[in-house]
Every structure is written in structure tokens, then in C-alpha cells.
Inverse folding.
């Protein structure tokens, strides 16, 4: 199956060492192409390709936004490639056949950064400031992910509802030791391409 995918992201960030910068999660978006394949022969409970195991691959753009107490909010645009193993624990159920659990990893590269600088008062109260330059941010992150979803048949195609959590593992920069974690809720429409 192959089709378009679009979603809403909610991103949080750990605090840097020098001061409190992160205020609260921000709302962003994601969109791109998604592919999935489900294995297993047909049984009396389900048709072909609806077994206990599947795989997924996506190519998409994601915007991660966080609200800060600095002069502006941080907005990072990523090109992202999530790869997932999908498990269907109720494959033999007529009602819950489309429910799946997914585990995997996402490979993300920064495409855009706003603003150019983030400046926040140093909490020492001595009128000094801490400034972070977004141009120093690293361009790559590997994020473990876990999620839940439900796949609904639409003729020979599929409509998916999915919720997913991404755990950031890389610090944004050497002088900006923050990690971003994201919750994503998305919708997909998959067109059937082949049977195997």
C-alpha cells in the first residue's frame, strides 16, 4: 500500500544547562508519502495479506515547534524517514483486525531553522544574557518511536488513523544541549499496489 499522510505534531524540549529556555510544547505539522505492507496468508478470519506482522516506511516533512521564554519561539523543519515494524495482535478478530502496534526508528535531517538567534535573560539576575545561534544546530537526529494505529478497509484500499511518540536522542548542538520529543497524530489513505 502507498499513499499520502498528514498530521499534527506536539513537540517538547529539554532545558539547556545554562538557563531555562523551554516554556511549553508547540503545535506543528507533518506531511508526505507512506508505504506499508502486511504479511500473512488468508484465513477464515481474514483475507490475504492481513497477518500478525507488517512493515512501514515513510518519507515526509515535519515541522517541530516549541515555545520558549526567549525573544522568539523555536521552529525547526525536518526531512524525516521513519521505519517501523507493525504488529497486529488481533489479526484473527473481525472487529479489531486493523489495530496495530508499531516500533521503530526515524532518521531526521534539519532543512530549516527559525529564528537565527534565541536570547534569554540569564537567571543570575546580573543583566547578562544567553544567546543561542540556530545556525550551530546539528543537521541530523535518530529518534526511536512507538505508536498505535487502526487501519480501516475502503474497498481494496485502506484508511489509517495513527498516534506516535518520537524520542529525541541527539543534542541540538554542542552549546545547545537540548533534545526534542514529539507526539504526532496523523491520517493516511493507502492505495493498494500489489499482493504477495
Amino acid at each position: 500500500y502507498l499513499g499520502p499522510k498528514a498530521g499534527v505534531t506536539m513537540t517538547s524540549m529539554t532545558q539547556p544547562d545554562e538557563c531555562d529556555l523551554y516554556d511549553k510544547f508547540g503545535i506543528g505539522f507533518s506531511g508526505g508519502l507512506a508505504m506499508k505492507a502486511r504479511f500473512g496468508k488468508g484465513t477464515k478470519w481474514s483475507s490475504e495479506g492481513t497477518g500478525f506482522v507488517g512493515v512501514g516506511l515513510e518519507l515526509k516533512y515535519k515541522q517541530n515547534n516549541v515555545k520558549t521564554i526567549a525573544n522568539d519561539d523555536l521552529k525547526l523543519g525536518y526531512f524525516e524517514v521513519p521505519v517501523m515494524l507493525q504488529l497486529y495482535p488481533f489479526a484473527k478478530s473481525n472487529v479489531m483486525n486493523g489495530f496495530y502496534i508499531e516500533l521503530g526508528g526515524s532518521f531526521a535531517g534539519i532543512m530549516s531553522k527559525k529564528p537565527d538567534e534565541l536570547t534569554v535573560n540569564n537567571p543570575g539576575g546580573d543583566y547578562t544574557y544567553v544567546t543561542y545561534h540556530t545556525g550551530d544546530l546539528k543537521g541530523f537526529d535518530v529518534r526511536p518511536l512507538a505508536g498505535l494505529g487502526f487501519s480501516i478497509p475502503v474497498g481494496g484500499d485502506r484508511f489509517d488513523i495513527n498516534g506516535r511518540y518520537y524520542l529525541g536522542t541527539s543534542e541540538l548542538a554542542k552549546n545547545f544541549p537540548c533534545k526534542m520529543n514529539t507526539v504526532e497524530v496523523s491520517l493516511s489513505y493507502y492505495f493498494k499496489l500489489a499482493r504477495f
The chain has a mean pLDDT of 86.
